[in-house]
Amino acid sequence: DSGVTQTPKHLITATGQRVTLRCSPRSGDLSVYWYQQSLDQGLQFLIQYYNGEERAKGNILERFSAQQFPDLHSELNLSSLELGDSALYFCASSVGDRGDPDTQYFGPGTRLTVL
Amino acid sequence: DQQVKQNSPSLSVQEGRISILNCDYTNSMFDYFLWYKKYPAEGPTFLISISSIKDKNEDGRFTVFLNKSAKHLSLHIVPSQPGDSAVYFCAATGNNRKLIWGLGTSLAVNP
């Protein structure tokens, strides 16, 4: 158990809909990262927040947005969903800002299926 | 364009033998490389890393070798155990510390 929790575990929805994925980082971690893993793309970094502020951006679509709240939990919002958005979405957390890659702790993921 | 490539989607090894997982990269600005292990229904967990100033890093049964001129790294597991059966991801990063991931290699260690 990494200490990072993600809800829900599974999500099935229809094209055009909007969903929210939730992540609670490990106690004491200030950084949260979101990743997308689809079958043919491997893990893709989406976005990082540090202590409530956006710190780094990766291959995140404009239809997607995220935020980190004062209690440090984070939400990833996916809107106007398309079939291709079906994937596993992972959240990771780390203590610091620089996010030393070998100290990122991953949650179990949310499997999103868009029908 | 895959900057980090794991060309073998799967590998099968006998228990007690050596497992060698390979990874190639294209970006010469990468200076830190990592291996993560992933079991089904779990997130990736960090396994071992290597900085570009080294060519080898060892941690117990796991050794990572880096060949910068060939832009190639490999993970050796000796001896392999059934509990090592998992998907192994190679990842690389540069100054911005954004992790770039390979597609993974599924290792099966057979008793």
Notes on the structure:
The complex is a heterodimer of chains A (115) and B (111). Chain A is globular. Chain A has no helices and 11 strands. Chain A is mainly beta and 115 residues long. The N and C termini of chain A lie far apart (31 Å). Chain A is 0% helix and 52% strand. In chain A, strand 7 (64-68) and strand 8 form a beta hairpin. In chain A, the strands form 2 sheets. In chain A, strands 2, 4, 5, 6, 9, 10 and 11 form a 7-stranded mixed β-sheet that branches. Chain A has a 4-stranded antiparallel β-sheet with strand order 1-3-8-7, with no helix packed on it. With 111 residues, chain B is mostly beta strands. Chain B has no helices and 11 strands. In chain B, the strands form 2 sheets. In chain B, strands 2, 4, 5, 9, 10 and 11 form a 6-stranded mixed β-sheet that branches. In chain B, a hairpin with a 2-residue loop joins strand 6 (56-59) and strand 7. Chain A binds chain B through residues 2, 4, 40-45, 56, 58, 90, 92, 98-109, and chain B through 2, 32, 34, 41-46, 49, 89, 91, 93, 96-104.
Please state the average pLDDT score of chain A. 91
Query: Which outline of chain A best applies?
Result: globular
Are there runs of chain A of 5+ residues with pLDDT below 50, and where? none
**Rg over C-alpha atoms of chain B, rounded to the nearest angstrom:** 13 Å
In terms of quaternary structure, what is this? heterodimer
The share of residues in helices of chain B is under 10%
The chain-level structural class of chain B is mainly beta
Give the termini distance of chain B in whole angstroms. 37 Å
Q: In percent, how much strand structure appears in the residues of chain B?
A: over 45%
Largest interface: A-B, 24 and 22 residues
Order of helices and strands of chain A: EEEEEEEEEEE
